[in-house]
Structures are given as C-alpha cells and as structure tokens.
Write a structure and sequence with these properties.
The chain is an alpha+beta fold. It has 15 helices and eleven strands. The strands form three sheets. Strands 3, 4, 5, 6, 7, 8 and 9 form a seven-stranded mixed sheet that branches. A two-stranded antiparallel ribbon has the order 1-2. A hairpin with a 2-residue loop joins strand 6 and strand 7 (177-184). Helix 6 (226-262) runs antiparallel to helix 7 (274-302), helix 6 packs parallel to helix 8 (311-338) and helix 11 (384-397) packs parallel to helix 13.
Length: 502
C-alpha cells in the first residue's frame, strides 16, 4: 500500500487540508465493515461473539496493512458509547447523537461505516495524560452549533492515528475536570481543525498519522471523569494490539514454512535441515502461545459470569498480555526474517515491512515500562497479586478453562503433572520477586513480563489437555521448559553506578 499524502491547497488557491489515502486502504475498510470485524462484538444475539471476532481479526490483522489500528479505536469508541448509553440520562438530542454515532461505528454497510480516532497524545506525552493534556474545552454560544455540541475544543494533538476517521474520542480540560469528548470531523475544511503534518514513521507508513491543531472544533461532552470512562476502551485497544501480535507472527511463520519447503540448499529443501526445523518449530510455538493468550483475554473480557469475580485479574492481564505479546512478536518476527536469508532484508519482497509495522506494538497503548508500572499498581491493590497467580495456576491445572470458565469436570490425565509443577514453582518465585524485590528498580518490568510468560504456559497446557493432540502437548512442553524467562532484576546500586556519569 502507498503512504498517505496531505493536500493543503486546491487548484484555485483555496485551503483544503485534505488527507489522501490509497484505494487499497479504503477497500480494506469496506471489507472490515462487510465482515463485521467491529460489529460482531456488539451483536448481543451471538454466543461467544468475542471469540468469533478474535478469530476473524487473527486472520485479517497480519495482512490488513494495519487497518486493524483504526478498527481497534472504532471498537473501543463503540464500547465506550455503549456503556454511556446504558448509564446516561441526558437530553434526547444527546442520546440520539450517541446512538447515531454508535450505529455508524458498528454497521456492516460500508457506505455508512465510520471509523473513530483516539486523540489522547499531546506535546508533553501520551502516557501520563492527566499531566500532559493541555487542550481546553470552551463553552460556545454560537447559534450555529447544533444541539449537543455547545462546546468547542482548542489545543494540539501531537500524535493521532487514522486521521481519515469520521469521528473521535478525545480528552480536554473542562473547568476543573479532565473530561471526555466526542468530536465529529467536518466533511469540508472550515478552519476548526488543521492537519499540521503527517508523521514520518519507522513503520505503519500506510496508516495516516498526523499532528493536529484544534481551532474550536465543536465537541460533545461525554463524561467529566474522562480517565475512568476510557478504561473500557483501553481494554479493547490493548486486546487488538495482542491479536495483531499473534496475527503478524502467524503471517511470518506461514511464509517462513512455505519458503522452507521450496528453498533448496545443501542437497535438499531447507525445511529438512535439523537446525532450521528447530527455528521453524520455535516460531510455531510462540505463535500458538501468543494466539491462545490473546483468545483467553478476549474471553475474559466477555465472560459475564466471572467478570466481577475476576476483575482484578482482568485489570492486571489487560496490561500484561499487551506487554508480553508485543515483545514476543517483535523478537520473533525479526528471527523470522532470517529464515529468508537476504530476501528477508530486501524491501521489494515486502518482508521488512512486516517487522517495521510490528515494531509499533510495544509502543502503542503504553510502552513496556509504562504498562509495567501500571501492572505494579494493579497488583498492589487488595489481593490482586494472589488472585492473578491463582488464576494462572487454575488454568494450568485445568480447574478453569480459557476465559475463566470453571471446568465442568476435572481431567484424570496425569501427563501434565510435571508441567503443572514447573508452573507452580515459577509462580512461587514470581510471588517472592513481586513482594520482596523492592531494592530492584527493574522489578516491575520483570514481574510483568514473567507473568505474561507464565500465563502463556498455562494457556498452552490448558488447551493441550483439552485437545489431547500430540502437537499441542509438544508446544506446551517446549514453552514451559524453554520459554519461561529467569526471574531476576538488577539491584538499584548497580543501576545507579552504571548511570553515574550520564
């Protein structure tokens, strides 16, 4: 796909500020709408709709040219609006506006389908939005502003993805509150919003990402407590991030296996070379692990039976799964490029673009350090650490299935006892590090990454117990014995000494 372009002036000298995208980008939006990639989650009549959606996104994401990014924000916005519609008792005009917007975000009709932006990042950063947000919301007395849009926004949004959207959720200062607003983008340039520049990025170059200046764009106040009301949206966008990681891994693994079957060296197909077979097996193993981890998260978010009971687990795993899947994807996609030799380094094969696009995964929706600190805060509340580790233990032992569902019967299969034992010991060591490693500044990151690895092991063991397939058992065995990282972190004194001259 070709990257977007910004047209500032038309042929007659008039200002248009138009972002142009390629035809393939627009057609993929139409396909996503027809396939209901957002709509499925909001179809209340469908059983296991989140699993259905996750599977479709796994098939779509890795070859979507990052169209999954605007879909993630659209699904997050639709979830936020749905929650607000159930709780708000505001004016009829505002209710109609929210319902109309929700309908556009969840339609299967491409001609009516809208995507939503998520405008949170400003010049001072995007992680600590409480401190960084400087955009102001000012009450408007303009008679031309439609009902439900009596506020205008002024400020700079430094990094906004998918700027070809029709609507967006954004934070702004409103009196003493950091509030959440709904914005509908003007169909024609009216000066209320300026696209200052398109971002030149390492990857995702086909995705139109821009810096915006808001010059009084009309907005609808959704909630004065903005942070609290975007948390459900963050759960959704982080889930999409995890599914994208799994989808990219599946894509590179499938290509690598296919290449290995046709590429010949040393007297035969390279797939027959023992060392290369081990590399392909590793790629397959991590792909299955990240996939099951993402599916478990999708099911947890949808399990009404245990959503309240496992709320602290969901809060913790929302960040942990995003951290772990993103890091595993980037590390192993890079290894996947090696499977193609020099062709993996050549731009005209399209392979380097897979790696570049995947590099956004550890950054978007919170970097590893930011989410590790969030994980530490979540684990510090009440019994969250114990409940999270218990959930992973129960998955491993088979007393719970993916999604937190209680197992209806306990398997008598004893072949997984050794793997369960490895996970149990690992979780005990994790608990010790989480509760006693206060003198180690890197502890929070270690704990988050290791919880992610343990959660993956438990998902693989759980699935292998159900499928009773030899391949699934082998994947669970390899991950549990080889892919659980050591639980360690550098002491504070060593870190201070290393950085003393910096």
């Amino acid at each position: 796909m070709f990257p977007p372009s910004l047209k500032r002036i038309d042929g007659w000298g008039g200002k248009v500020n138009e972002v142009r995208t390629c035809e393939a980008w627009r057609q993929l939006h139409d396909i996503a709408s027809k396939e209901g990639l957002v709509a499925i989650r909001h179809d209340n009549d469908e059983i296991l709709r989140e699993v259905h959606q996750a599977v479709k996104l796994l098939l779509f994401g890795g070859v979507s040219g990052m169209v999954s990014c605007p879909l993630a924000m659209t699904d997050g916005a639709a979830t936020t609006l749905s929650n607000l519609l159930q709780s708000k008792g505001d004016s009829l005009d505002e209710q109609q506006l929210l319902r109309s917007t929700f309908s556009h975000l969840t339609t299967r009709n491409p001609s009516k389908f809208w995507t939503s932006g998520q405008w949170m990042t400003e010049r001072r950063g995007g992680s600590d939005v409480t401190m960084a947000t400087e955009t102001r919301a000012v009450e408007s007395h303009d008679d031309h502003v439609s009902p439900g849009k009596s506020i205008r926004l002024f400020g700079n949004k430094f990094y906004t993805s998918a700027i070809d959207c029709q609507t967006a959720l954004t934070l702004a200062r409103y009196n003493e509150d950091l509030a959440l607003f709904l914005v509908h983008l003007p169909k024609e340039y009216d000066g209320s919003i300026e696209v200052e520049k398109l971002k030149n990025k390492l990857g995702t170059r086909q995705l139109p990402t821009a810096e915006l200046t808001l010059n009084g764009i009309p907005a609808t106040l959704l909630a004065r407590r903005g942070i609290a009301n975007i948390i459900p949206m963050l759960h959704i966008t982080r889930l999409y991030n995890s599914i994208m990681a799994a989808s990219y891994l599946r894509h590179i693994t499938t290509l690598a296996v296919s290449f290995a079957e046709t590429r010949r060296a040393f007297g035969g197909p390279i797939r027959e070379l023992p060392l290369h077979r081990a590399t392909l097996a590793k790629l397959e193993c991590v792909t299955r692990g990240v996939t099951l981890q993402s599916v478990d998260m999708a099911m947890l978010l949808s399990n009404k039976e245990t959503k309240h009971q496992l709320s602290s687990v969901i809060r913790t795993l929302s960040a942990v799964v995003k951290i772990h899947t993103a890091l595993v994807a980037v590390r192993n996609i890079r290894d996947g490029l090696e499977c193609f030799g020099g062709a993996g380094y050549m731009e005209d094969t399209g392979l380097p673009g897979i790696f570049r696009d995947a590099c956004v995964l550890p950054v978007w929706e919170g970097t590893t350090d930011v989410l590790s600190a969030e994980t530490a805060r979540a684990l510090g509340k009440e019994q969250a650490l114990g409940e999270t580790l218990t959930y992973i233990r129960e998955l491993s032992r088979g007393s719970r299935n993916l999604g937190g569902y209680l197992a209806t019967k306990t398997s008598n299969n004893t072949s997984f006892k050794s793997l369960e034992g490895v996970v149990d010991v690992y979780l005990d060591d994790l608990h010790t590090m989480a509760t006693e490693g206060h003198d180690k500044p890197g502890r929070d990151r270690t704990v988050a990454e290791c919880i992610g690895a343990a959660h993956t092991a438990a998902c693989l063991i759980n699935f292998a117990r159900i499928s009773n397939d030899s391949s699934d058992k082998a994947v669970a065995n390899v991950w549990t014995h080889l892919f659980l990282p050591r639980i360690r972190a550098a002491p504070k004194k060593d870190i201070d000494d290393i950085l003393q001259d910096q």
